[in-house]
Amino acid sequence: MRKLILTTLAVLPLMASAQYKSEVWSPDNGDGTYTNPVINADYSDPDVCVGPSGEDYYLTASSFQCTPGLPVLHSRDLVNWQIVGYALKELYTGNKELTEHFSTPQHGAGVWAPSIRYHNGEYYIYWGDPDFGVFMVKTKDPAGEWEKPVCVIEGKGMIDTTPLWDDDGRCYLVNGWANSRGKFASVLCVRELNKEGTKAIGNPVIVFDGNGTENRTCEGPKFYKRDGWYWIMCPAGGVPTGFQLAMRSKSPYGPYEHKIVLAQGKTNINGPHQGGWIHTKYGEDWFLHFQDKEAYGRVVHLNPVDWSTGWPIMGKKGEPVSTYKKPKSNSTVIVNPVESDEFSSPVLGKQWQWHANYHQFFGMPTAFGTMRVYTHKVSDHFKNLWEVPNLLLQKTPADEFTVTTKLCFTSKADGQVGGLIMMGHNYQALALKRIGREFQLLMITCQDADRGKPQHEELVATLKPTAEDKIDYKPGIHEDIYLRLMVKDSKVKFAYSLNGKKFTDCGQEYQMKEGKWIGAKFGYVAYDTNPKTDKGWVEADWIHVSR
Predict the structure, then answer these.
(1) How far apart are CA 172 and CA 192, in angstroms?
(2) What CA–CA distance (Å, rounded) separates 247 from 185?
(3) pTM, two decimal places
(4) Which of 193, 233, 352, 526 could form a disulfide with 171 if both were Cys (CB 3.0 to 4.6 A apart)?
(5) Which helix (H) or strand (E) holds 99?
(6) Mean of the pLDDT values across residues 206-219?
(7) What is the mean pLDDT of residues 375-392?
(8) Of all helices (H) and strands (E), which one includes residue 230?
């Protein structure tokens, strides 16, 4: 039975404001305390700012090649977060050459380590694209439309950028460097921008050098000013094993003295890595940062900050907390980033991203209460799904969870494939493939997809179509099916059902693997090895994330 769908865009603001509570991870304990991570999903390199009300916090994070890019999350208490939009519809609107470049998956490229700031009535996000330069977008409404990106500095290698507008109106930018592009790293630079923050008017100055010391791989700097001191907060020592530095100077150009202010210590929270500092209207100080959890990606933690020594000592005496009292706020709302989807909206849910710049040939919502993903025509040298741009995916939301989806796969010709996938350097999918007048249900597995290794297919079952077109001049056959994946301890297990009640396990338990700078992601796959046939499609009715 088809679901009813809202037919007017006028109701979308109401829909967007609905409060979603996750069944699998909610950090708010309901007793005035929270448990880390506050976002148990891959929001890598997070940064945060507070709006003029002092009650609205906005967070953004790296999105690399995935689109829409630059996710924007909102919170009223730094613990309960929801996705309110994206600052980039594509990479990069207004630049035809770059838009075309990112129309195919550029794994690990694109948006690196952004910073978000509120200045003079507007919100700004800066980031470094390691291949093309430093970019900026701005808006008056962070949950609304953002202006087209501006290239502030053109060139390779610049990453992890943060602006600082000084008391006299001058603007400075700090950045790190990508060794993969420039063949040097572990240094931080400061240069001056024009007061609008749209172009560099000064040359870079090295203000910190971690080479040859424990502060190797210093990167991800965030720039602040407090009580007459210029502060740079950045991680060093390696991503899974490093720590947080704070450095201070009386000049934006240094020299800076530095101190380790947060490290793993005796806790089980490795890293802890880069993030952003917030001073609240209630006089409290907090630090949001990520922890690298391998296949699950880089999840977001919240730690208190103590300035009583003149340095921002984070967590509990410099070690990260697991459970702590919530920040002071006027909010009692418990809300989490959305995961499940009924596909009852005429716009794509905010949890979803494509693996490259979106094209309408990838698929679109329907008026029938479904999401349609068309089969992508793969290349003649196809080996695996690393090349496929129309993967519709979302982040893993917890260490343990179950995903169940109801879908119908429509095929117009042999060799068309569609189903449910857990994607990364290694991946596994449970998918239907048309062979003649039947469907094969396959476990599709690939090790080292990024290295061009071929995927392998294992037959699970052969299924008769649940429906066939009789009068279409290019008739299709259809299969209604329920697909499920279950995750625990970074391993995934698939199952299927023909009635939604009895599920049959299939394939072997599979070790999840992160992607290029991103965690493993799950969602829909649809592709086709025959370039001359009409497209088939996955028609997803709903997807539920549960315990």
Answers:
(1) 4
(2) 18
(3) 0.95
(4) 193
(5) helix 96-101
(6) 96
(7) 96
(8) strand 229-236
- Spatial separation of the C-alpha atoms in residues 379 and 377, rounded to whole Å: 7
Q: Are 112 and 160 in contact (CB under 8 A)?
A: yes
Rounded Cα distance, 355 and 345, in Å? 21
Tokens of 83: 């996705």
Q: State how far Cα 239 lies from the chain centre.
A: 17
| Helix (H) / strand (E) containing 229 | strand 229-236
Q: Which amino acid is located at 413 in the chain?
A: A
Burial (0-12, 13-18, 19+ Cβ within 10 Å), 104 = middle
Q: What is the arrangement of strands in the sheet containing 57-60, beginning at the earlier edge strand?
A: 47-50, 57-60, 69-75, 81-88
Q: Do you find a cis peptide bond into 255, omega within 30 degrees of 0?
A: yes
If you write DSSP's letter for every residue of 312-345 in order, what string do you get? -EETBTTB--SEEEPPP-S----------B---S
Q: Which residue has the tokens 């793993």?
A: 264
Angle of CA points 142, 83, 275, to nearest 5°: 80
One-letter amino acid at 131 equals D
For residue range 44-103, list pLDDT tens digits in order.
999 999 999 999 999 999 999 999 999 999 999 999 999 999 999 999 999 999 999 999
Reference 72, options 129, 9, 20, 124; nearest CA is: 124
3-class SS at 13? Answer: helix
3-state SS class at 12: helix
pLDDT digits (tens, 9 = 90+) for 279-336: 999 999 999 999 999 999 999 999 999 999 999 999 999 999 999 999 999 999 999 9
Q: Is the peptide bond prior to 37 cis by the omega test (within 30 degrees of 0)?
A: yes
